[in-house]
Amino acid sequence: FEAIAVLTSGGDSPGMNPAVRGVVRAALNQGIQVFGIQKGYSGLLAGDLRVMTSASVRNIVQRGGTILKSDRCEAFKQPEARAQAIQILKDNGIQGLVVIGGDGSLTGAHCLAEESDLAVIGLPGTIDNDIFGTEDTIGFDTAVNTALDAIDKIRDTASSHERHFLVEVMGRNSGFLATHVGIAAGAEMVVVPEYEVHIEQLGQQLSESRRSGKGSSGIIVVAEGRDPGLTYRLAEQLKQQGEDPRVCILGHIQRGGQPSGHDRVLASSLGAMAVSYMLAGYNDIMVGVADGAVVDIPLDSVIRYRKGLDPKLFELALLLHK
Ligand code: ADP
């Protein structure tokens, strides 16, 4: 390999910067030139490629967001646009590409690998931890901690006013973030898209805990799921059952902030390993984590299968507040 490129795409996540740094420094150490593509696939189509030096990634290991910028690019779903992108990479003498992003971005990466002779390696960059084939994703740990920090504060108000709070966390269609946050925050209940909500039961449980003196204030963590109005509707239903809960949507604060130590180490090692796998001849794979070790998974499987929420973990979230 003489030259490779790296891009970040889709929703940003804390840790993308140390991942970019890992790719750039590992490649430069092998004498390989590195291009940083700006703004994901849109920047690639616009030919916005910049030569990266060791100094380009200095002082970014601790910074949230992505210095390469990120974007969503509808056009990239068309093969004609991808053919153009492949030509742009070739014209710049680029033989390999590392794509850091979520499910959608990795789908784009798989298409590029299939439609060209480029070596394409994906890295899971999302706060949702919803990528098949890896137990961890870059940004998940930081997002869990950000949500916990917020919930610990909300709990002060909940208990001062003896009131329940419904706190909505991100996670797209998956309940990973909500389940982890729920367990770590000691939530009274966790609502995730993978399991049906039994609102009457929830209402009874809250009233019961108020009556028994166990708690007149509590936190219910709700995953954003597929249904944007769910959290407010749950609050309405609880009101009809005699509760007076408040709603707090944590929103985009979960995507930002300094990456945690865990995410910095994860991102740095996945970034460097992406280059090692590429040099070892791997292509069309994602580099992720299984049983605590760095592993490769074909991108084909990554995008074909849905990662299931561990039922034991979800049960634990419900069990521990009883
Ligand atoms: P994320 O990567 O965080 O899941 P998106 O789902 O928005 O975010 O995807 C990011 C980008 O990846 C899209 O804007 C598009 O450019 C590309 N992409 C998504 N789906 C596909 C697809 N089916 N084929 C090719 N490219 C895709």
Automatic annotation (TrEMBL):
Binding of substrate, residues: T126, I127, D128, R163, M170, G171, R172, E224, R246, H252, I253, Q254, R255
Binding residue positions for Mg(2+): D103
Keywords: Allosteric enzyme, ATP-binding, Cytoplasm, Glycolysis, Kinase, Magnesium, Metal-binding, Nucleotide-binding, Transferase
Cofactor entry: Mg(2+)
InterPro entries linked to this entry: ATP_PFK (IPR022953), ATP_PFK_prok-type (IPR012003), PFKA_ATP_prok (IPR012828), Phosphofructokinase_CS (IPR015912), Phosphofructokinase_dom (IPR000023), PKF_sf (IPR035966)
Binding site for ATP: G11, R72, C73, G102, D103, G104, S105
Phosphofructokinase domain ranges (all copies): 4-277
Keyword flag Transferase: yes
Location, primary (coarse class): cytoplasm
Catalytic activity: beta-D-fructose 6-phosphate + ATP = beta-D-fructose 1,6-bisphosphate + ADP + H(+)
Residue numbers annotated as active site: D128
EC number: 2.7.1.11
Protein's pathway: Carbohydrate degradation; glycolysis; D-glyceraldehyde 3-phosphate and glycerone phosphate from D-glucose: step 3/4
Compartment list: Cytoplasm
Binding residues for ADP: R21, G22, V23, V24, R25, R155, G186, A187, E188
Ligase recorded as keyword: no
HAMAP family: Phosphofructokinase_I_B1 (MF_00339)
Record's function text: Catalyzes the phosphorylation of D-fructose 6-phosphate to fructose 1,6-bisphosphate by ATP, the first committing step of glycolysis.
NCBIfam families, per database record: PFKA_ATP, PRK03202.1
PANTHER family in UniProt: ATP-DEPENDENT 6-PHOSPHOFRUCTOKINASE (PTHR13697:SF4), PHOSPHOFRUCTOKINASE (PTHR13697)
Family membership noted in the UniProt record: Belongs to the phosphofructokinase type A (PFKA) family. ATP-dependent PFK group I subfamily. Prokaryotic clade 'B1' sub-subfamily.
Name of the protein: ATP-dependent 6-phosphofructokinase
Organism phylogeny: Bacteria, Pseudomonadati, Pseudomonadota, Gammaproteobacteria, Oceanospirillales
Gene designation: pfkA
